[in-house]
Amino acid sequence: MRCCRRIAAAGALLAALLSALAVRSSLAERRRPARSSLAGRRRPLRFASGGFKVALFADLHYGENAWTDWGPAQDAGSDRVMAAVLDAEKPDFVVYLGDLVTANNLGIPNASLYWDRAISPTRRRGIPWSTVFGNHDDMAFEWPPEWFSPAGVPPVQCPPPTSMSISDCSFRGTPRHELMTGEIIHNGLSYSSNGPKDLWPAVSNYVLQVLSQKKDDPVLLMYFLDSGGGSYPEVISSAQVQWFQSQSQFLNPNGRIPEIIFWHIPSTAYSKVAPKAKSEIRKPCVGSINKEDVAPQEAEWGMMDALAKRASVKAVFVGHNHGLDWCCPHEKLWLCFARHTGYGGYGNWPRGARVIQISEQPYSIQSWIRMENGTKHSDITLS
Ligand SMILES: *[C@@H]1O[C@H](CO)[C@@H](O)[C@H](O)[C@H]1NC(C)=O
Ligand SMILES: *[C@@H]1O[C@H](CO)[C@@H](O)[C@H](O)[C@H]1NC(C)=O
């Protein structure tokens, strides 16, 4: 009896020690950026003589209604838009700005096939990229009501039954973490990251540094945030704000390096600076379509204040609203929409992509929109 009590006491002591260590290490992690958040395992991104050019692919919405003719046809359209933009612009980097797939409409058990199709035009051209999540990427499948009519469920791709399991046609979609892990392990050109675990359920939270052409100093920081939606509310959490503050403080303490920010769902600040819905876009805003109201995040937990406090933050880029493509000033930074790139998702406005051109010397950030048919418009200087 005595022996066992002593063992139990030793066990309790050990457990206490271990939990103290765990607290200590999680505090340390919070102070320093986790290695993985810098995607350190890839070759560093670097400016070239022409600067550093980023193309934004927003709201592709692959995989809709695959059992009809129009679903696959619109996916082929999205392939064409990306090919046209990549060949016209030859960007150094691509940002997939969320809603790559419409998971609530995918008639297959997982989203990874369509996710892979969305990134393949960029991969095929050897261009590095990264992704953030939109609200549709891990949505639960919505059974089409017409599948319950006499016509019944159309032939959809259910996995073949194995000896262990019967065929499972549950269309569970693919959770954020799994989509991201699949992308990263299969693609050496992906600079995406699962982000620090203490920010979950928000997953796509990470920073990329771009080095100077000649020296190994970072001259641009790109922050990626998960603005939620799908499996949890459409928000940027207070924990993400703290994460941003500690990352930016650590990587750029004196604000010497310009910073740009990417996430999917516009923050409420976008509604405040927006031109009146459906009116003409007037200076200082620049853009070509203003066809709907901003559909903002559900709450603001301090992200915009954190950004506005840093003079080094030049612009935020979001997707989500397919009928908006403007940039408007907000305090000392710019709030920009991308441009609806995919043929999936609502709206029939012509497709295109926002392009960002950063030059090192003299430093400038220019942006414009490149359309599927090759035309270019909405030129703006963001810094
Ligand atoms: C996803 O589903 C497709 C068919 O529906 C299957 O071929 C593929 O192996 C699945 N991938 C994963 C990662 O489960
Ligand atoms: C390209 O598309 C735009 C709409 O985005 C249209 O205004 C323009 O006339 C088209 N240009 C050509 C050359 O087809």
TrEMBL record:
One of its GO terms (cellular component) is cytoplasm. Coiled coil: none annotated. Residues 52-322 form the Calcineurin-like phosphoesterase domain. Residues 1-28 form the signal peptide. Keywords: Signal. It comes from the Eukaryota. InterPro entries: Calcineurin-like_PHP, Metallo-depent_PP-like, PAP14/16/28/29. One of its GO terms (molecular function) is hydrolase activity, acting on ester bonds. Pfam families: Metallophos (PF00149). This is Calcineurin-like phosphoesterase domain-containing protein. It comes from Oryza brachyantha. The lineage of its organism: Eukaryota, Viridiplantae, Streptophyta, Embryophyta, Tracheophyta.
